[in-house]
Design a protein that fits this description.
- This protein has 246 residues and is mainly α.
- It has one domain.
- The protein is 64% helix and 2% strand.
- The protein contains 13 helices and 2 strands.
- The longest helix is centred in the N-terminal third of the chain and has 30 residues.
- The radius of gyration is 18 Å and the shape is globular.
- The mean pLDDT is 94.
- GO terms for molecular function: oxidoreductase activity, acting on paired donors, with oxidation of a pair of donors resulting in the reduction of molecular oxygen to two molecules of water.
Length: 246
């Protein structure tokens, strides 16, 4: 019983580490330039992503920018309106891989501003190595089978539930504050560091805060404010700075 609880708690921590690194670094910083991170803070987020997801920053950024360029229109790499809801909700990762495979120039076209540095070349561009190190660390701390269980739960929740819900559910059901094809789902936002406020994001892509109404909560925003207070981040105007809060 205690071991099972340890596995679940550890998996939840690993999932949320990946979630916050994704939304703060990959999405708001690298993709949209909504904030600028101190190099030390950026390195920490990059390392977390490397050992928890194996994502290559330039590839993720390129696919996401293309999504914004062709949102729910021909050319969108993962639109449920084009590909079908369940195809994106259950197989979003495969649509990312398909976009990279079928469009070899996607990184050059959509992420030309992100030049690989020494850490990318030696570490962060080698996703499988990062995942192997992350899983090895879990097994070393928790034991072989508990470590593998945590890794499996994390992979399932991060890849097939949370990340896919942003591109699946949040382009299919939910409410809107702004006139675009994305939607807001508060529960998804609570679990994804604010990413479930997807309609708000599509309305104001360069806002470092994804919440707009007082009834909405962006879990990553307090962390961004703390980083800013510590001199580890600078951010652009928020959605509420340019629009009055209802």
């Amino acid at each position: 019983m205690l071991e099972a609880l340890t596995i679940l708690i550890t998996a939840a921590i690993v999932v949320q580490l990946a979630v916050f690194a994704t939304t703060i670094y990959l999405h708001r910083t690298a993709t949209h330039g909504a904030l600028t991170l101190h190099p030390a803070a950026a390195w920490v987020f990059r390392f977390i992503l490397w050992i928890t997801t194996g994502i290559t920053t330039r590839e993720w950024v390129a696919v996401h920018r293309k999504h914004h360029a062709f949102t729910d229109e021909e050319g969108d790499p993962h639109s449920p309106k084009l590909e079908g809801f369940w195809s994106v909700q259950l197989g979003n990762v495969f649509h990312y891989l398909k976009a990279l495979r079928n469009d070899p120039g996607i990184v050059t076209q959509y992420a030309r501003d992100l030049k690989p540095d020494l850490f990318d070349r030696w570490l962060f561009d080698h996703g499988p190595l990062g995942l192997l190190l992350g899983i090895t660390a879990l097994c070393a701390v928790l034991g072989l089978w508990p470590g593998l269980a945590v890794a499996g739960i994390h992979a399932f929740l991060y890849v097939f539930v949370l990340s896919s819900s942003i591109n699946g559910l949040c382009h299919s059901i939910g409410y809107k504050n702004f006139d675009n094809s994305a939607t807001n789902i508060r529960l998804v936002a609570y679990l994804t560091g604010g990413e479930g406020l997807h309609n708000n994001h599509h309305g104001y892509q360069r806002s470092p805060k994804l919440s707009f109404k007082r009834s909405e909560f962006d879990p990553a925003w307090p962390i961004i404010k703390l980083l800013t207070a510590l001199g580890l981040a600078q951010h652009r105007k928020t959605i509420n700075d340019v629009r009055s809060t209802p």
